[in-house]
Amino acid sequence: MNQVHARFQVDYPDFSLSVDLHLPGRGVTALFGPSGSGKTTCLRALAGLESTRDTAVSVNGVVWQDDARGLSLPTHQRPVGYVFQDGGLFEHMSVQRNLEYGMRRVPAPERRVSLGQVVDLLGIAPLLGRKPGTLSGGERQRVSIARALAVSPAILLMDEPLAGLDAKRKNEILPYLERLHDDLEIPVIYVSHALDEVARLADHLVLLEEGRVVASGNALDLLTRLDLPLSHGDFAGALVLATVSGHDAEYHLTRVDFSGEGLWLACHPVATGQQLRIRIQARDVSITLEKQTGTSILNILPATVAALSEDGPGQVMVVLQVGDTRLLARLTQKSVTALNLTVGTPVYAQIKGVAVLR
Amino acid sequence: MIASDERSAILLTLQLSAVTTVILLVIGTIIAWWLARTRSRWKGPVGAVVALPLVLPPTVLGFYLLITLGPNGPVGQFTQAIGLGLLPFTFAGLVVGSVIYSLPFVVQPLQNAFEAIGERPLEAAATLRSSPLDRFFTVVLPMAKSGYLSAAVLGFAHTMGEFGVVLMLGGNIPGKTRVISVQIYNHVEALEYAQAHRLAGGMLLFSFLVLLAMYTLNPTGRRS
């Protein structure tokens, strides 16, 4: 019962969409795909904003729509929080009144959050008296997210909340989104076409292409599946959940463990035992057959080649198994041949760069 | 100072314009909303019918209204059957004529205002638990405020300036259907230029002040 189910079909003259999604009832699910793949349509259908057929939508056991039984709640009766790509703020109301608009329409016994809580969570207290027209893009989106949360939704739907913002503004909002991820008990569906956002936020990942679901599963697994486009190209990389096991004050380093192996990171000020989400890009991983000594590379892990796949002319993407974790390494075809790499070859992965996502 | 038949013409005109404007704001909202939102193939034909009074000579409009509302017309037979009697040459008949005559002046600013709002604020309101009627009053009305102001001003002022339709449909009955524009015509016919000047000048001044107020207070109204 503890899941989100969405099945529907949309037929437009130039576009058709057919999906049957079973998503986790907690955590962040990213709907990922190129523009025109139907991500936003999925979100709108969940909210009842799109006319669809053969529809069945239920959220954590509550049925919102079932065409077979002629049942469909109109949008205003669905407990959704919806963050539009452009914010969708009411320009004729102050920020405060925007926030109160939805909240006042939720019966008091159903309210689980106070205005003060959402204002604090998104850090928008200084903006309350202002009109949306005077806000920056990043501020607008934070208000929009707060307004959506203020209705105590059963699910939070976010349509590319960071699209159209520059890198600086994105980085201003991402920490808030990460807080949502940690604090919210409700499922979040996050539409995006930016891999970096997905890598930072998503637990579950749905890949859409031309109105079809290409893959749906754990984000960590999908990022290293060679049959999917995510594991190819310059930005491919693996996600690793690692636990902080100690700090080296003298060298300003932090030690993290995963799959029985350890990694050194540039000092990251979190307590021992905390979990970090780190990203290891395929182009930052090289391979040796014997363990190198006399090298400047700190992180060298024993691994086994699990899969290989061509990745552009002269390039090969290699999946490395380290315990129960999978890493990606992007090598030249020449190196693969020289090292005679095949599935099962024991190797050492030399990791030149590690990014801590959160 | 003002003669009694002048005063009754002025009062009648204001009354007619006020009643017409109120009715038009209600009917106009419905038609403009439908025109702004629909994807029906009837959008074009309905829009054209609404705009007809813009281009038709008022006498043509008045002529057909006279026939339709008259004793042998379909509407006339209906109003007789339900005991309302005949509408031509009554104040009620003038209201019906004015509503049709001024319809485009109310529908078009409203339609523009509704179209300018777009879908997004309404969708956002729906996801914030707002029912359709609630959305209309809390989102559409405040956002279309300037459109409503333009519509009311144009509807009122245009009805005040009506002549052809009134003459065809209402005749020239003092205190009942004789509005300012008809009274001016009477004065000119009788070569009473001084009286005609007073009324005509008053109309000119009034119209100018109303439009001036609208364009100064409500710069966005210019678009409609």
Helix content of chain B: over 70%
Give me the CATH architecture of chain B, please.
Orthogonal Bundle
User: What is the average of the pLDDT values of chain A?
Assistant: 90
Strand content of chain A: 35-45%
CATH superfamily grouping of chain B = MetI-like
- Structural shape of chain B: globular
The termini of chain A sit apart by 30 Å
The ordered H/E elements of chain B are HHHHHHHHHHH
Work out the largest interface and the residue count of each chain: A-B, 25 and 17 residues
Q: How is the main sheet of chain B built?
A: none
Q: Which ranges of chain B are low-confidence, i.e. pLDDT below 50, for 5 or more consecutive residues?
A: none
The CATH class of chain B: Mainly Alpha
Residue ranges of chain A: pLDDT <50 for 5 or more in a row?
none
Give me the count of strands of chain B: 0
Q: Number of helical segments of chain A?
A: 8
Helix content of chain A: 10-25%
Tell me about the biggest sheet of chain A?
A: 6 strands, mixed
User: How many domains of chain B?
Assistant: 1
Give the domain tally of chain A.
Answer: 2
Instruction: Give the SSE string of chain A.
Output: EEEHEEEEHHHEHEHEEHEEEEEEEEHEE
